[in-house]
Hints:
Elements: H1 2-115
Amino acid sequence: MSNQKQTGLGEVSAIRDILMGEQMAEYDQRFQQAEIRADAMEQAFIQKLAELEKRQADALQAFREETEKRLARLEQQLAARAGELEDKIRTVSDTDRVKLGQMLSELGRQLSGDGL
């Protein structure tokens, strides 16, 4: 019985091949072409994605380097400005001490002169 089924199926396949053989071959060819195009598109997509990733990484690296340079410059400027301000504070403090000493001396003289 299985031989009869196989024979029957074989005959059906043969009839199908006779009736639709050209169309099936055409469909197979179209599917192969579509698969080839899809593979090519996938490869192009992968390549473009890799290029974009590289550009992104390069841009990020450039941004980091520029940011580090700017930060270093700002730190230098801040350190220089802090030094200038410290010098000014010392100068003002020294000047204020001298002025305060002069004022106290003058006050002492005035008190000494008034008390005599």
